[in-house]
Amino acid sequence: MTSGGTAAAAQASGKGTRKPGKSVTGTRPWIAGAFLLPALLLLGALVVYPIGYSVWRSLFDAPGSGFVGLGNYAELFSDDRIRTALKNNIIWVVVAPTVATALGLIFAVLTERVRWGTAFKLVVFMPMAISMLAAGIIFRLVYEQDPERGVANAVWVGVHDTFAEPAPYPGANPRPNSDLKASGGGAFTTKEAARTGTAVSLPLVAVQPDDLKGAQRAVAAKPRPGQITGTAWLDFTRGGGGTPNRIDKQEKALAGLEIQAVRDGKVVASATTEADGTYALPARAEGAKLRLPASNFAEAYNGVDWLGPALVTPAIIGSYVWMWAGFAMVLIAAGLASVPRELLEAARVDGANEWQVFRRVTVPLLAPVLVVVLVTLMINVLKIFDLVYIIAPGASQDEANVLALQLYQSSFGTDVNQGIGSAIAVFLLLLVSPVLIINIRRLRKERQR
């Protein structure tokens, strides 16, 4: 071999040999460590130390002076409030991510081919720009019990009143010392049986002014042979001076009031008062007592108690889905854009309808994206705090309690016990860890493909 060839070989072998003390990338380890040191210090101060201290603090009592071992963890499963919080967290983890992901998938698929799909996606995604605090305030007003203020109950009451006729005079009562007496269930019945050819007066009080708008002046009914007649009116004269149980000049008629003739517990006849308050029952009502059914006086339908103990958790989950369905939709839409159209068209050519294409082709191809969205939302709901703290009123906050909120209340609330609070924090970390591990493994598998 020539000297030139030897030199070339030596040069080539030199290129393939790593200098001592250098890593694969050609950088000395201490240089890489120097660059990583600030980040490691910050990570240790903000993550590692708080986790370690929380584990240590969870082994001590409320003042932090007495060692209790795993006693705080045992109390997590014996305290009623914490058990309620744990149950609600399970509901959150199962329901909220599933519903948000399902809605995101539906929105992404349905808006793919429509012209205004981008505008719709923008509107659905807009709640993501709102903080949890602002969203909580918004939905606290949406779920307000008063239909005049709460949007949810305004819609619900409107739908209800479309199919159910409201009571004409909610809250009205008989005039004291009149012939009408309460007969149970909100109804009022005369003490004496009525006779044909007589007029039975039905004076009422406590009628709301709004229910009398456009009402005519009451007219005294005249007796008629073979009929039971009478008048129902508001026995109240503004400014005083009226005579009880008698129709005075300025007193108003109660139109649309249902009158029933009841004998032996059965309704034998019924009538409705006219515009001047008068009514007439046929001869078969002879000897029956007159009853004003409760449907005349039932309170106006006030909607659903959204923030009551029974519905407060589903209501708050609804506000969360409103915020995060847009997030799921955007990620799924991005995954849908990368789905090969040839596969979808091939399925349609083979005779599959749109539902079969969606169920057997689109969803399986989107499975990796759906898993990412689902796992991300599961981690997010395990830490949910803001919405529950703001939306749930004090009367039902215990029923809406979640672990993150209980952690705050135990650590900084009125009954401070930082040992319990630290135990809840460690327990939350243990709950989140399996989801994080699954997510990390999934990411590693995707990189190896």
TrEMBL record:
* Membrane-spanning parts: 30-51, 90-110, 122-143, 321-340, 361-382, 420-440
Q: What CDD domains does the entry give?
A: TM_PBP2
List all Low complexity biased stretches: 1-15
Keywords of the record:
Cell membrane, Membrane, Transmembrane, Transmembrane helix, Transport
Cell compartment(s), UniProt? Cell membrane
- SUPFAM superfamilies to which the protein is assigned, alphabetical: MetI-like
- UniProt similarity note: Belongs to the binding-protein-dependent transport system permease family.
> What is this protein's record name?
Carbohydrate ABC transporter permease
Originating organism: Streptomyces ochraceiscleroticus
Its lineage opens with:
Bacteria, Bacillati, Actinomycetota, Actinomycetes, Kitasatosporales
